[in-house]
Specification:
Fumarate Reductase Iron-sulfur Protein, Chain B, domain 2; single chain; disordered C terminus; mainly alpha
Length: 214
């Protein structure tokens, strides 16, 4: 590669692009996007994107750090993988979008009151406590995340669904007081803590303090 090409490449690879390459899962693929737009056209949420994937990738290249990390777009991805299947360059677009969402959340830059973000955090907190999801507590936490009155209204509007779940024994009111769990909860916590340590070393993150006990 000639000196001029090297200089142009260095100019192209701004600080934010380097940051994404180093800190975001599969972020080193961003520079391979050729801006064809197939990902946006393949996505079921295409019309609803604040920034389509190829726009996100171009914004990264342009160094628009705040706009990218505060975007709602990454949180819309439903992991259907249409974009990855159809991408001419086989970019791991789904993985990159989830990686950007996770990175934004770690930095505290993710949009506040983002429904998918809120549900993800509530679900993680719920299932890692006992090793199994407590559906009743999960539902209550999601419904009441925007306040007591909003939670009551939500529960009342879906009361028939709740009654149906109880009739089929898919929802047990006693789960509010006694949660089921896996057999080795301490082992689960140790495994999660070890996974956090490995990820922290791999990406250079500070170890997240999730309250795991050794």
């Amino acid at each position: 590669m000639g000196d001029m090409n090297t200089q142009m490449l260095d100019k192209y690879r701004n600080d934010f692009l380097r940051e994404v390459e180093e800190k975001v899962d599969d972020g080193d693929w961003v520079k391979m996007c050729m801006q064809c737009g197939v990902c946006a056209g393949s996505c079921t949420f295409g019309p609803d994107w604040e920034h389509t994937p190829q726009k996100i990738f171009m914004m990264i290249r342009a160094g628009k750090r705040e706009e990218v990390l505060s975007s709602h777009s990454m949180w819309l991805c439903t992991s259907c993988y249409n974009c990855m299947v159809r991408c001419p360059r086989k970019l791991p677009i789904t993985h990159i979008m989830h990686g950007l969402a996770s990175y934004a959340n770690r930095l505290g830059l993710a949009p506040k009151d983002q429904p998918t973000r809120d549900f993800s955090l509530i679900f993680w907190e719920n299932c890692t406590k006992t090793g199994r999801v407590n559906e009743l507590r999960l539902t209550i936490s999601v419904y009441f995340r925007q306040g007591f009155l909003a939670g009551v209204k939500k529960m009342w509007s879906l009361r028939k669904i709740g009654q149906g779940l109880m009739k089929t024994k898919r929802l047990n009111p006693m789960e509010l007081f006694m949660s089921h769990g896996c057999k080795d909860k301490d082992g689960l916590r140790r495994a999660l803590k070890k996974a956090d340590e490995i990820e922290a070393r791999r990406r250079g993150y500070e170890l997240q303090k999730r309250g795991y006990s050794a």
